[in-house]
Design brief:
The complex is a heterodimer of chains A (111) and B (115). Chain A is an all-beta fold. Chain A contains no helices and eleven strands. Chain A is globular and about 40 Å long. Chain B is globular. Classes of the chains: A mainly beta (111), B mainly beta (115). The interface between A and B is medium-sized, with 22 and 22 residues.
Chain lengths: 111, 115
């Protein structure tokens, strides 16, 4: 079936370094993608989104890159801070509108 | 973005009982959804809560087990019926103000433990 998967289940980075979290999606019909951050004991928090007509979108300290050719999505976090420690999920919306979540990557920031 | 609250935030229940989870949005929204997140795992869509009509369930989820109501554009409930320990999970409500491809915002979740 259709699925969204992440290359790395865990990622440990040093405070101040840049983080890159990757995601592969399988549905070529997906036209909208979202990155969520989920801290322990909380619901997913919207970080940034991108539509399929874009390759890159920047937010505050975060950048999402979309490569439709290889169906790959990445989230880059600049100058990673301890408060960035969380599980990050990518999600895609194929035609039909359902949001399909990837498995998640746990980001751990070492001080 | 919509602000979403859920009640209860957590509960411990006995098997065979039912629990109703409430989801309240601070503004009218087009779409509301219910997800389940088992410990250490990703989110799985249970159903789309349709205002004024029956919910649309995903494969593996049925109305008898997870009845859903959505009486208006800001409120929905999910009931977990005849609970078993396998129902122990986090249940999350989400909402979007646009169409199905618009950003979904999530509530804080309800942490359910079934003994």
């Amino acid at each position: 079936g259709e699925s969204v998967g992440l290359h790395l289940p865990t990622l440990s980075v040093q405070e101040g370094d840049n983080s890159i979290i990757n995601c592969a999606y399988s549905n070529s019909a997906s036209d909208y993608f979202i990155w969520y951050k989920q801290e322990s004991g909380k619901g997913p928090q919207f970080i940034i989104d991108i539509r399929s007509n874009m390759d890159k979108r920047q937010g505050q300290r975060v950048t999402v890159l979309l490569n439709k050719t290889v169906k790959h999505l990445s989230l880059q976090i600049a100058a990673t801070q301890p408060g960035d420690s969380a599980v990050y999920f990518c999600a895609e919306t194929p035609l039909g509108g359902k949001l399909i979540f990837g498995q998640g990557t746990e980001l751990s920031v070492k001080p | 973005s919509a602000v979403i609250s859920q009640k209860p935030s957590r509960d411990i229940c006995q098997r065979g009982t039912s629990l109703t989870i409430q989801c309240q949005v601070d503004s009218q929204v087009t779409m509301m959804f219910w997800y389940r997140q088992q410990p250490g795992q990703s989110l799985t869509l249970i159903a789309t809560a349709n205002q004024g009509s029956e919910a649309t369930y995903e494969s593996g989820f049925v109305i008898d087990k997870f009845p859903i109501s959505r009486p208006n554009l800001t409120f929905s409930t999910l009931t977990v019926s005849n609970m078993s320990p396998e129902d122990s999970s986090i249940y999350l409500c989400s909402a979007s103000s646009g169409g199905a491809r618009e950003t979904q915002y999530f509530g804080p979740g309800t942490r359910l433990l079934v003994l």
